[in-house]
Amino acid sequence: MLKNVYSRQFLLNSLLISYLFFLTFFCFYKPSIEIVYVDNQKIFDGFVMTKEMKRAGEKEFNSRKLFLDKLYSNLQSPTISGSQKKELMQQFIQGKEELEEFNQTFAAEQSTQIWSRIKSYSIEFSKEKKYQLIIGSDAKQNILFADENIDVTNELLNYINKKYEGL
């Protein structure tokens, strides 16, 4: 009978020790989730690709605007006939509409391409840094609170610019 009691105690103690061991293991050795955030506007504006696309768009815009300015100047000339003025006015209106359409489509298309590139670089960045979630926010408007220690905006911006430049 005494042997039976010792056997039960030994079994109970073994189970308790195993339970404590597993509890300690899961409490102290579970992987932590890495969550960081970035300021989307700083990322977009600071990205070299954005600056290059903006310069290209401004160059195209300025050349189209120069053409419109010449048309407008010709329209103001007192030496043109009524039929020429009507034709120039139609060209001017069409050119102005095309310029407005260019502005809208260029900005939308370029933004899509830029965000696509930022996203692909961000995925690589996350894998290298072992981040499981990067939250993007415009000037922290969607984030009620975030510790400044988890703001990786500048780090991600440096990373994507180096990747874009092939470094």
Automatic annotation (TrEMBL):
Task: Write the signal peptide boundaries.
Answer: none
| Membrane-crossing segments per the record | 12-29
Pfam families in the record, alphabetically?
Answer: OmpH (PF03938)
By its UniProt entry, which InterPro entries does this protein fall under? Answer: Chaperone_Skp (IPR005632), Skp_dom_sf (IPR024930)
Question: Is Transmembrane helix included in the keywords of this UniProt record?
Answer: yes
Q: What keywords were assigned to this record?
A: Membrane, Transmembrane, Transmembrane helix
Q: What is this protein called?
A: OmpH family outer membrane protein
